[in-house]
Amino acid sequence: MSTQPSRVLETFPNPQPERDYCIRIRIPEFTCLCPKTGQPDFAELTLEYVPEERCVELKSLKLYTWSFRDEGAFHEAVTNQILDDLVAATQPRFMRLTAVFNVRGGLYTSVVAEHRAPAWQAPQPVQLP
């Protein structure tokens, strides 16, 4: 596998496709460029998803997020693009991407984008006594 930035998202078979379970991936070092100034923007991404048949392979995800390092992008656009690409690669039952950007000009930005498969309903939480 390459050690250069790449837009290729590799996947592997879900080991438990009959079960709803959540995969949570924290990506604390995401960077892209401000499309207005060209200065770097820094964010922490949190990916949460309930897989169907495929899971995203972590090294390819790392190289994928690295590919945005020298690209200008508005926070809203890049968050939705990453979600769309991940959904296309994995076809999950549910996926949420939260992007928490560091301060820029005295303003903090968080963007949350979600995908739900058409017929999927989240199971009700178990209530313990």
TrEMBL record:
GO terms of molecular function: preQ1 synthase activity
Gene: queF
EC number from the UniProt entry: 1.7.1.13
Keyword Membrane on entry: no
Protein name, as recorded: NADPH-dependent 7-cyano-7-deazaguanine reductase
Superkingdom field: Bacteria
Coiled-coil regions listed: none
Location relative to the cell: Cytoplasm
InterPro entries: GTP-CH-I_C/QueF (IPR043133), NADPH_dep_7-cyano-7-deazaG_red (IPR050084), QueF (IPR029500), QueF_type1 (IPR016856)
Active site: 34 (thioimide intermediate), 41 (proton donor)
GO-annotated cellular components: cytoplasm
Family recorded in the similarity comment: Belongs to the GTP cyclohydrolase I family. QueF type 1 subfamily.
Top-level taxonomy: Bacteria, Pseudomonadati, Pseudomonadota, Gammaproteobacteria, Chromatiales
Single GO biological process annotation from the record: tRNA queuosine(34) biosynthetic process
Binding annotation for substrate: 56-58, 75-76
